[in-house]
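Hi R.,

Here are the chain sequences for the assembly we discussed:
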Amino acid sequence: MAYEFTEEDLQEIEKIKAKYPEVKAATLPVLWVAQNRFGHVEPDVQKLVADTLGLPQAHVHGVASFYTQYYKEKKGEHVLDVCTCLSCQLCGGYDILEHLENKLGIKAGETTEDGKFSIQEVECLGACGYAPMLQVTNDQYVNNLTPEKVDDLIETLKAGKEPEYDQIGMPLRKVK
Amino acid sequence: MSSADWKNYERVLIPDIDGLEKIDVYEENGGYSAFKEVLTDKKKWEGPKSVVDEVKAANIRGRGGAGFNAGLKWSFMPPSDGGPRYLACNGDESEPGTFKDRKIFEYNPHLFIEGALIAAYAMEVTAIYVYIRGEYKVYIDMMEKAVQDAYDKGFIGENIMGSDYSVDFYVHSGAGAYICGEETSMLESLEGKRGYPRVKPPFPAQKGLWGRPTTINNIETLAHVPNVINRGADWFSSIGAENHPGPILYGISGHVNRPGVYELPTGIPVLTLINEVAGGMRNGKELKAVIPGGSSTPIVRADQLDGITMDSDSLREVGTMLGTAGMVVMDEDTDMVDMLWRISHFYHHESCGQCTPCRDGTGWLEKILLRIKNGDGEIKDLDLLLDITTQMEGRTICALADAAAWPVRHTITRFRDEFEARCKKSVHAIA
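And here is the predicted structure of the full complex:
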């Protein structure tokens, strides 16, 4: 399949290139533009990025394959990244992962048949105080998970809504 | 103020001011006045070097984990030759247990921006890049807006506030790689490459981004700078622990009642942080162990913690470090074998693969620990693990191998009975 950037994407890419003295530095941000446009960065998309920036495809592939957030293959519409790293493990991250796997009938690394959901087990996402948690498709964090909260999230996503930003303040405004 | 008086501490990094993330509110509360002063008050601030000296005197020890005096680091930049020079701000924040810099992005982004601008001026930097881990998309968007607002107000750009100083400021998103928090790996990533750490020397101050002089500082480290300029180095160094002074963001997670990020002076007793600040142990359980500053800092048993405070000198007494001050608290029910296996899994996953001791060593550690976890290990495996850690430490380009080795060595030595209990009895009849 032939992929193409829109005019709007190309304008954004020009802006990105202007941030750096060398075009190669635009590789990561332009891979982001591509993934936001196409939902993944399969080899054909990597080629588009390489051709657009005038860089070898091998370089773009090398970069795309190094970083975990780029989807090197097609994923579900919603990618649920469940953290099971240290603090999340201590606070029940594996139970949450198991609950989610049972609920969706797939294992981490798989996508549901209807293409709606993928589950990934991921490393620390920097939300250790709000464990266990997951991230929805490289975007919102859903914190302090319980099985019920996971169920609600799936219903929200199935209804075509995105989870809202879950703001967590600084605790203890004044320590007494 | 002393650490003992922590209950009366008034927050300065993330004060209780609603809407402080907005540039107008930040300015109403004295924001950007420190930057303005160093640019325009030539009597007080004779030039960039005077700013470096003040920050050096404050002894802001890097809050990203290494604990190096920030001002001293700035002084390593060579004299300007008129070409490009860079400040790279490290917001990769990926060490398990660490979740503090996101609070600055969210609640006081302009304090960090102002600190970065002062640092840039002090080092005669021509462009600032802030590298934020890609998972923090929400905070990246917030920072993009904050930087744009600062451009619009004339705090960034050409001839800032009528001075002859000009600088640009860019936000750069990572894409999922712990190693990019290592400073030279971050530079590679900024240049659009795989995040392979560089061999040092040359150090970034000599050859950093695109071969030009570059300094890398943590976000929180830079956020301390405006307060140091406004209140003086003496004010900063009078707070908290003598040799590791200042306010600090403690991230507390694990089995406590009130996990979260707390701004307090350095040098607070570990047990005070757990029992008073974080509301004590969850479900009334007993404390078993603490990892004080991110997963790579050696674990400490509860019975070692009496009188130990959160600063490098005190933590050294029990063989550990302050790291990022991201403290992970474990209760009596914690399975140390499972916990250590998960840490080793992390480092194996995140090893960049350049150096053999790390690429293979992290995998071996994980595999052997999995074997023990599954009940198939033998007691000699514990000594094999300890031996592997000595083969990894100090033998690689960057510190990831050390970070992977330390938790294994210290968790096994400090909880050896639990590990032995999980191993098969490797006793063979000799007759």
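Helices of chain A lie at 7-17, 27-38, 43-53, 57-66, 86-90, 93-104, 147-158. The mean pLDDT of chain A is 95.

Let me know if anything looks off.

Best,
T.
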